[in-house]
From TrEMBL:
<keyword id="KW-0460">Magnesium</keyword>
<keyword id="KW-0479">Metal-binding</keyword>
<protein>
    <recommendedName>
        <fullName>GTPase HflX</fullName>
    </recommendedName>
</protein>
<dbReference type="InterPro" id="IPR025121">
    <property type="entry name" value="GTPase_HflX_N"/>
</dbReference>
<dbReference type="InterPro" id="IPR006073">
    <property type="entry name" value="GTP-bd"/>
</dbReference>
<comment type="subunit">
    <text>Monomer. Associates with the 50S ribosomal subunit.</text>
</comment>
<dbReference type="InterPro" id="IPR016496">
    <property type="entry name" value="GTPase_HflX"/>
</dbReference>
<dbReference type="InterPro" id="IPR042108">
    <property type="entry name" value="GTPase_HflX_N_sf"/>
</dbReference>
<feature type="binding site">
    <location>
        <begin position="261"/>
        <end position="264"/>
    </location>
    <ligand>
        <name>GTP</name>
    </ligand>
</feature>
<dbReference type="Pfam" id="PF13167">
    <property type="entry name" value="GTP-bdg_N"/>
</dbReference>
<keyword id="KW-0963">Cytoplasm</keyword>
<feature type="binding site">
    <location>
        <position position="241"/>
    </location>
    <ligand>
        <name>Mg(2+)</name>
    </ligand>
</feature>
<comment type="similarity">
    <text>Belongs to the TRAFAC class OBG-HflX-like GTPase superfamily. HflX GTPase family.</text>
</comment>
<feature type="binding site">
    <location>
        <begin position="239"/>
        <end position="243"/>
    </location>
    <ligand>
        <name>GTP</name>
    </ligand>
</feature>
<feature type="binding site">
    <location>
        <begin position="350"/>
        <end position="352"/>
    </location>
    <ligand>
        <name>GTP</name>
    </ligand>
</feature>
<dbReference type="Pfam" id="PF16360">
    <property type="entry name" value="GTP-bdg_M"/>
</dbReference>
<keyword id="KW-0547">Nucleotide-binding</keyword>
């Protein structure tokens, strides 16, 4: 058992020992265990929990009853008693029975990584959609564990793991929770319907859509704020912003596009959370262009990029045109900067640098502009003329009798969206 001790001067209510199990199967996977444990500490900090120690354990496989093995549980109890901790946070997901067994021996609150992330999302959700999605994810997580959780379900102590649905819901029986889940799914379907209508309106207007994606705390919200003068919350914490934000961005040509900041990704993002937030994450699937924001100063940069790529693959958005933005370049050492890759779809930037912001706009514009096409539109078809001005860059307009000959530089994706309207007027 490897133990690392931290400063204990803080007066935060929850004092936690972090616990991580590494099995032979986990060693053969792509999971970066050091990154995962570092993130767990950061997640705990975000949830206002004081981390007093970490404990890691290597085993061939997880113990079905005790997760880390009975002997290691006794050693963990000694650490908890010595440091006066009141919480144990496990980096892997626990079963209800494991939680009950660990509670009985350790006599502290038992939290796993999934529950910790859900708790943070419960703190961050502000919109009706976000609150519904978080509560649905929490109840879906709780339902199969009702028989396993002991003291945790009383929720009398407050603090980490107690936020979200609330005490009364957590103490109800399975029938009540299933009923609540059904009601939340119905409400979420209504939200999804409204979001789908909104997306359809955006498609019909021919507005080019860009999505900001990236690992949590990579600087997506900062970049959105700087590019569009938005007022999105910025904090040096994981999941500082949860609800997606869309803003209009003017390109150098004057054309306006919509750019959307999405929820940050993280290693081992809970499946219940991905399922509940699918309506939000599908904003990425609707985008014409993805800006993948990377924290270039992070030692775990490559692992973080891999996680983002895997989630994009899961969402079905991996084939979308993508630009890599290596952010926080000002925080890199000269050697780190030299190691960063280069390419036509790669920019090394600082979100606060005005010149870098302009480079981003210009690169987006390269994706927006496309082939030059000529259309002959009757002067009384104002809606078609307006559509051409919205979706492309009008290079020339000539009036001939009662027709307008309009030469437009039109992006292929934009044309594919509006082709059924524009085809009758296009001149070969």
């Amino acid at each position: 058992m490897k133990q690392t001790t931290y400063d204990t001067a803080s007066t935060v209510q929850d004092r936690a020992v972090l616990v991580s199990l590494i099995t032979q199967v986990m060693k053969r996977s792509d999971t970066n265990h050091d990154l995962s444990l570092q993130e767990l500490a950061k997640l705990a900090e975000t949830a206002q929990v004081e981390v007093v120690s970490t404990v890691t354990q290597n085993r061939v496989s997880r113990d079905a009853k005790w997760f880390i093995g009975k002997g290691k549980v006794e050693e963990l109890k000694a650490v908890i008693d010595e440091l006066d901790a009141n919480t144990a946070i496990f980096d892997q997901e626990l079963s209800g029975a494991q939680v009950r067994n660990l509670e009985q021996v350790l006599n502290v609150k038992i939290i796993d990584r999934t529950q910790l992330i859900l708790d943070i999302f419960a703190q961050r959700a502000k919109t009706r959609e976000g609150i519904i999605q978080v509560e649905l994810a929490q109840l879906s997580y709780i339902l199969p564990r009702l028989s396993g959780h002991g003291k945790n379900l009383s929720r009398l102590g407050g603090g980490i793991g107690t936020r979200g649905p609330g005490e009364s819901k957590l103490e109800t029986d399975r029938r009540h929770i299933r009923g609540r889940i059904s009601e939340l799914k119905r409400q979420l379907e209504e939200v999804v319907r409204h979001r789908s209508l909104y997306r359809e309106r955006r498609r019909k207007t021919g507005i080019y859509q860009v999505a900001l994606v990236g690992y949590t705390n990579a600087g997506k919200s900062t970049l959105l704020n700087q590019l569009t003068e938005a007022d999105v919350l910025i904090e040096d914490q994981l999941f500082a912003t949860l609800d997606p934000t869309s803003r209009t961005l003017a390109l150098p040509s004057g054309k306006e596009i919509v750019i959307t900041d999405t929820v940050g990704f993280i290693q081992n993002l809970p499946h219940d959370l991905v399922a509940a937030f699918r309506a939000t994450l599908e904003e990425v699937c609707e985008a014409d262009l993805i800006l993948h924001v990377v924290d270039s100063s992070s030692e775990m940069r490559d692992d973080q990029m891999r996680v983002v790529d895997e989630i994009l693959q899961e969402l079905g958005a991996a084939a979308k045109p993508q630009v890599l933005l290596y952010n926080k370049i000002d925080a890199c050492t000269p050697s780190q900067r030299e190691m960063l890759p280069s390419g036509p779809q790669v920019l090394k930037i600082s979100a606060y640098n005005l010149a870098d912001q302009e480079r981003i706009r210009e690169l987006i514009q390269q994706h927006v502009v496309g082939d030059t096409r000529t259309f002959c539109v009757p002067a009384d078809r104002g809606e078609i003329i307006s559509l051409l001005y919205r979706t492309g860059d009008v290079l020339e307009q000539v009036v001939e009798d009662e027709d307008l000959w309009i030469q437009v530089r039109l992006n292929r994706a934009d044309y594919e969206k509006q082709g059924y309207l524009l085809d009758p007027y296009m001149q070969l």
